[in-house]
Structure formats: C-alpha cells, structure tokens
Amino acid sequence: MNDRGGKKIQRRPVHGVLLLDKPLGLSSNQALQKAKWLLRADKAGHTGTLDPLATGVLPLCFGAATKFSQLQLDADKTYEAVLLLGQKTSTADAEGDVIETRPVPAITQELLDELTQRFTGPQTQVPPMYSALKKDGKALYEYARKGEEVEREARHVIIHKLNMALAQDPRAPAAIKIIVSCSKGTYIRTLGEDIGEAIGCGAHLGSLRRLETGGFTDGQCVDLPALEAMSEAEREACLLPVQSLVASYPVVTLDADNAGRFLSGLRRRGTPGQWGSDAEMVQVYGTEPAAFLGSAHITADELIPTRLLSPIEIQDMLAARPPVSSPAALAAVA
How many CA atoms lie within 13 A of 286 on its CB side? Predict the structure, then answer.
C-alpha cells in the first residue's frame, strides 16, 4: 500500500464498522478501497454492493467485523428512487442507452394508489442483466456488455412498504419518486421497470439512494471528503464497534472459565434458562475482561458458538477503546 507520493504505508489491524455515504460514480469496492487506504486497515469488506449510480448507506467492515458482514447482506433495506417515465434503457437506469420510447399517460393519485397496492407485498423479480449475479462463473453484466442475454431464474422478494408520489425532473415528461422498504435481493431497477410496464409507458431509474440497511441510516454516515479531511484519530472515532452488527440480538454474559471454553469453540451447557430462551442469534460477552467474544445460538440450554473473535482480535479491540465497567456497558456501546 503506497501513499500518493509513492511511499509505502504501513497497514495495521483496524476493527469496527464505518457507515459510509457512498458517493455517486464510485463502485462499492472503489469506495471501500479509499476508506481502507485512509484508515491504513489490513482487512476490510463491504456489506453488499451499491451501483455506481447509487448513493447512500454502505456499511464497511474492518478486521473482526468482516466475520459478521453476512448479517447486513441479509438485512432489509430502504431506498429512495426517482423513476423517469416514458423511456426504457439498456441498463434500466440513467447510465444506459435508450432502447424504447413511449407516450406517458396521465399520472393520477388514483393510479399511484393502485400501483402502490399492486407492488406492495411478495413479488417475483427477474434479475437485470446488468447485475453482479453469477451465471456459469461469470457476472451477468459481463454477458450484457457483450450484447448477450442469458436466462435468469426469477426471485421471490418482499416489498414491505412502498410510497409513491409525482415528481418533477427535466429529463422526462413525467417522474415518480418512490421510497421502498424491501427484503434482501430486491432490485430497485427491476421494480422501476415493472412499475413502468404497469403504467404502459416504460421507465428507468434516474437516481437511487439507500436510506437504511439493517437499522443503520444515512443520517449516521460520513462521506469520503469529510473522512479525507480528518486526522487518523478522528477517522478511527467514526468507527462503530464490531458488536454494532449484532446489537439487536439478546446478550449472554460468560464468566472467565466459560468464556475461555467458548472462545475455543466449545458448546456451553447451561442450567434451564441460564442463557435465556432458545434463540437463532445472541451476542456473547466475557467479564474478565469485559469484552465482546462473538455470536452464538441457543438450543435446549446449550450455547453454541457461531462466529468467534480470536484472542488477538480481542486484545486489539481492548487496546483501542477506553475501559468499560461491565459487559452490559460494552453492549450498550453498540
């Protein structure tokens, strides 16, 4: 890793979650690499891609946080988008070539209410060709760039909530702003195209912003220019703790003996109710010292490790934060 003058920069262990407001025009990986460089982090990953056209919440995981990134991949998300009516494009967004133009009918509130009802709830979507989904080992966009179209299996998704309103946009004779809360795997570009077909005029996305993912909102985010202007200590202060990724789950606290065995990957048998009720996920803490140890699930009074931090990761995290009085206080930090 080199700085802009060619001098080698020393990477270091960094653990935590950076909520980045991804800028327009950068891929998720490009944004990740910039943040990784600014923090001098030796290990990092993002939690699901945002198109270069899209902006908004992109949680970036560093160090031990990468072990829990799948939780964000699986999380529900909320987007705001502007649909430009009357034209379809090759990519279903404003970056593609116009492939079809049709007249736009009158867009009434009654029509918007009908569309809202139609597109709320369980839906079936065919993924767009311009996507990162793989077919025979190649991303779909690789086929699309060569002008090839391959068969895609329809996906079942859920639109939990949909708000639609007329919007003004100089790029189209009519536009609709939508706010969508949806399950993982939902393509907003596809939703926009489907809405355009339901109206009868076609549509494509003029803009897309992720407002929320897994409980993290755009109001919590920092952008790259602000991050670049900070000192290294200020950048580190922007990091949420690793356990913020599991903060919504119940807490289990272990004494020193059980904590050591748990970190070795051993199941811990408890007395009835000792760990709480059966649960698909809990966050686990030790007491000596007060530290986040990882995640587990509980079945029939057994605490079964799921994702564990290493002793070195725990030491790094303890050294990087102020002391806390108890695991409960530590959990509250998330």
Answer: 20
Q: Are 94 and 126 in contact (CB under 8 A)?
A: no
Backbone angles phi, psi at 260, to 5 degrees: -60, -40
Distance (Å, whole) CA 106 – CA 104: 7
Strand segments (E) across the chain: 16-22, 44-46, 54-62, 77-85, 87-89, 98-101, 121-125, 134-135, 138-139, 155-167, 175-182, 203-213, 216-217, 251-254, 268-269, 279-287, 290-299, 302-308
Instruction: Say what the pLDDT of residue 127 is.
Output: 80
| Rounded Cα distance, 257 and 282, in Å | 19
* Cα gap 130→143, rounded to integer Å: 9
- What is the number of residues in the chain? 334
**The dihedral formed by the CA atoms of 25, 183, 212 and 66, expressed in degrees to the nearest 10:** -80
At position 75, the amino acid (one-letter code) is A
CB 84 within 8 A of CB 206: yes
Residue 53 to residue 209: CA distance in whole angstroms? 9
Q: What is the model's pLDDT at position 253?
A: 96
pLDDT number for residue 201: 97
Question: Strand 290-299's sheet: what is its strand order?
Answer: 251-254, 279-287, 290-299, 302-308, 268-269
Please list the alpha-helical segments (H only) found in 40-131: 70-73, 109-118
Query: Which amino acids are annotated catalytic?
Result: 51
Residue 40's pLDDT is what? 96
Residues of the chain with pLDDT under 50: 1
CA dist., res. 186 & res. 246, Å (int)? 23
Two tokens, residue 135: 């077919």
Q: How far apart are CA 65 and CA 161, in angstroms?
A: 30
Element (H, E) at 261: helix 256-263
